[in-house]
Structure prediction request, 503 residues.
Amino acid sequence: MEVAAALALLLIRQRINGDTPEVRARSLNTPSMAIKNRNVPDNPESRRIGASIRGGGVQHFWLPKGTSQLPRVAKAEGVYVWDTQGNRYFDMTSGPVAVNLGHGNRRVIAAMQEQAARVCFSYPAYLESEPNSRLADLLAAQAGPGHDRAFFVSSGAEAVEKAIEFARLHAVARGEASRFRVISRLPAFHGSTLATQALSEDPDHSPLQPMLQRWPRVPVPFPYRPPKGLTHDEDAARCAEILRETIEREGPETVLAFIIEPVMGLTGGASYAPAGYYRRIREICTNYGVILIHDEVMSGVGRTGRFLAGHHWPGTQPDLIVLAKGLGSGYHPIAGFLAPDAMVETVVEAGGFHLGHTQKSSPLACAVGLAVVQETLERDLVSRAERHGATLRERLRALQDGIPILGDVRGLGLFNAIEIVADPVARTMLPRNLDVPAELSRLGREHGLLIYARRIYGGRFGDWIMVTPPLIIEPAEMDQLVERLAATLLAYQDRLRAAGHLG
Prediction:
């Protein structure tokens, strides 16, 4: 705690003396680090959105014409990413909370090359692949009894859809064809397809709202701002009972599943509930025959200091588990869901489950996933995430005295977030017309940080950014992360004060 507090004060003194974080950030950009494409001249005018008539980067789909394009990536290694101008960035959020192993892992690259040389694609309806079976065996062993089978697809959204489709076929196979409703929470994010957005998006902020199925929602027990007069435990108990009441209101015979992120991603900024909440919702789902689904797209494969986030709360085991980002660690698209053998057998006896896309259980994807999980386990990165995560939260909390807009620090393992506020005592939010995460992401790049951040639900529930570095982070690298993040927050705090948004 004392080291991080001293760091925050040192940064403030350096600003006063003229040795600013911006100057030190620019010092990283030495000519010797520059990486140029010798065949393509770097014309500034050609680096604007819309400068080319055809093609161009995917950013053309969201940036207005005339906007300066984002820096171009050149290489990445460990916790760092370089652009073509030689600027080095610390990947503070592991991309979109995906690159658990960091960049350039030799074991994963070798596994990818070896499998690609052997066979990249084989359709599982014709032939089995060894990587598919071995990865399924390894995940089942780590997940524990009751999660015996794995169905692999390409993305988290696809895996969520497949889990829900599987749950529906299971209900029909059991003679419960009336079950079709899926309850999610508000706020939530479970993917960007039309089906998963129906479980995720705020209808008031989505132009796709007329196309979305309207499913029931129940509230999230937020620890930082429980309703007035309630403790976090009391609010969690209230939210669990609202689930029970919602099932009753919708008709228990119609409710198929309840889906949650046990530790929340961007929609909750690493928020999680007391143990009693997870026990109670498990009990409610069991009593009403509702399938409980844990969306561990972000939190799974060791990020929270357990192989699964649900392992933090024994006795609360879900029926289905969805995994994605950390499973492939950014090296190749792979995701999937885990299911009990008994549920799978019920579905198989009724005709089976074939609703995957072309790349389901791809040998190349499964080989990458297998290498990622093996590397995670053999390097004991799960325990490392628990230890380093506790240290990281301690250092971030030590910054709060010198950076009062840093209102809350929370999380488990290396799955953390910080909440930005106008007043840390009253916990008041900044004006809703400010896109706080977007501005922090932009300032972060100026200070050598890549920050995955975007505003959720128009900032209705607060403003936070994820602090989720790769699980391989070393203590010295953690010092760099905290220093650069402190510089970014101080710069933003100065701008807020100059604009009159702070007292």
Remarks:
- DSSP finds 15 helices and 14 strands in the chain.
- The chain has two domains: 2-103+381-498, 112-377.
- The longest strand covers residues 406-412.
